[in-house]
Specification:
The chain is α/β, with parallel strands linked by helices. The chain is about 45% helix and about 15% strand. It has one domain (about 5-260): Rossmann fold, CATH 3.40.50.720. The chain contains ten helices and seven strands. It is globular and about 45 Å long. Bound molecules: NADP nicotinamide-adenine-dinucleotide phosphate.
C-alpha cells in the first residue's frame, strides 16, 4: 500500500464493496483497501475463490470480510446482493466485475454478448443507484467504475464489449457532476491491457500488460479528484495521440489494434445460416 492510500478509510468510512473481487483488478482493489484497514464486501460468482481471498485478507490485515457469491448477470441475484449489504456502513463502491469478447460480433454467442450488457452495464447501474442513494444520505462516498481504453470510440472486433464500456465511461462522467454537490466522488478507471483473467476469457492476446495492483493504486489515488484515470502506457498514449483525430479515423485505428490482439480475428467457426457462412 502506498502511504497516501492510508487515508482511504478516513475519507470513505469503514466498509467498501468490491465486485469482481475473486480475481484480477477487483482482487487487487480488495488487497489495497484491506491494507488501508477497510472492511470488505467481496462479490463474484466463484465462492471458493472469494473465501480464499477473504481468509487471506483477514489474516494479513485483520479486516472483516463478507463474501457474497452471486451471478451479476441475473438482475434478481444482483438486487439480492445489494440487500445483503444494508446493515453495513459502506462508503465506497468499486464495480470491477466484468468481461469482454473479441472477434466479429456475428461469430459470438448471442447469450454471452447479452450477458456482457447485463454484467458490465445493467448491474453497474443497479449498484450506482443503490449506493448513490445510500452515500447521498450519509453525505459522503466514493464510486469507482471500470471503464477501458476501448470506451472512447467504437472498436471493431470488440464492438459490443467496447459499447458496454462506453456506457460505463459516460455514466461515470455524468454522475461525477450530478453527485459532487452531495459530497460524492466518482471515478472512471480506463486501463489499457492488464495482466488478469480478462484476456483469456475475451480470447485476446494482450501483449505487454500492467499489473492489477498498479491499476488499483492509481485509481484509489485519483478518486478524490474524480474524473477519469488511464492506467498503463497504451491507454495514455492512445488518449493523447487520438485526442484530435476525427472520430471515424479513431474507430479505424482502434479496429486495427483490436484485430491484432484478437486470438481469433476471424472469429470462432459457426454453422452456416441460410446457406451463408457467418
Ligand atoms: N484486464 C484488462 O486488460 C482490462 C482492461 C480494461 C478494463 N478492464 C475491466 O476491468 C474489470 C475487471 O477485469 P479483470 O481484468 O480483473 O478481469 P478478470 O481477472 O477476468 O476478473 C473479472 C472479475 O469479474 C467477475 N465476474 C465476471 N462475470 C461475473 C458475473 N456474471 N457475476 C459476478 N462476477 C463476475 C469475476 O469473478 P467470477 O468469475 O468468480 O464470477 C472476476 O472476479 C472488467 O470490468 C474489465 O472490463 C480490464
Amino acid at each position: 500500500m502506498s502511504p497516501r492510500l492510508s487515508s482511504v478509510r478516513d475519507a470513505y468510512g469503514p466498509w467498501a464493496v468490491v465486485t469482481g473481487a475473486s480475481d484480477g483488478i477487483g482482487r487487487a482493489f480488495a488487497q489495497e483497501l484491506a491494507a488501508a484497514g477497510v472492511h470488505l464486501v467481496l462479490v463474484a460468482r466463484r465462492e471458493a475463490q472469494l473465501d480464499t481471498v477473504a481468509a487471506d485478507l483477514r489474516t494479513r490485515f485483520g479486516v472483516q470480510c463478507r463474501v457474497i457469491a452471486t451471478d451479476l448477470a441475473d438482475p434478481l441475484a444482483s438486487s439480492h446482493m445489494l440487500d445483503r449489504t444494508t446493515d453495513l456502513d459502506i462508503g465506497l463502491l468499486v464495480a470491477a466485475a466484468g468481461f469482454g469478447s473479441s472477434g466479429p460480433l456475428l461469430s459470438q454467442l448471442d447469450t454471452s454478448e447479452q450477458e456482457q450488457v447485463a454484467v458490465n452495464c445493467a448491474a453497474v447501474l443497479a449498484q450506482c443507484m443503490h449506493f448513490g442513494r445510500r452515500f447521498a444520505a450519509r453525505g459522503s462516498g466514493g464510486v469507482i467504475l471500470l471503464s477501458s481504453v476501448v470506451a472512447f470510440h467504437g472498436t471493431p472486433w470488440s464492438a459490443n464489449y467496447a459499447a458496454t464500456k462506453a456506457y460505463v465511461q459516460s455514466l461515470a462522467e455524468a454522475l461525477r457532476h450530478e453527485w459532487a454537490p452531495r459530497g460524492l466522488q466518482v471515478l472512471a478507471c480506463a486501463p489499457g491491457p492488464v495482466g488478469s483473467g480478462f484476456g483469456a476469457r475475451a480470447q485476446l492476446r494482450l501483449g505487454r500488460t500492467i499489473s492489477p495492483t498498479v491499476v488499483a493504486q492509481q485509481a484509489l489515488r485519483a478518486l478524490p479528484r474524480g474524473g477519469t484515470v488511464r492506467p498503463g502506457w497504451l491507454s495514455k498514449l492512445l488518449g493523447w495521440s487520438l485526442a484530435t483525430a476525427p472520430r471515424a479515423l479513431r474507430v479505424r485505428i482502434m479496429g486495427s489494434i483490436m484485430h491484432g490482439m484478437a486470438a481469433q480475428p476471424a472469429g470462432p467457426t459457426r454453422p452456416a445460416l441460410h446457406g451463408r457462412a457467418v
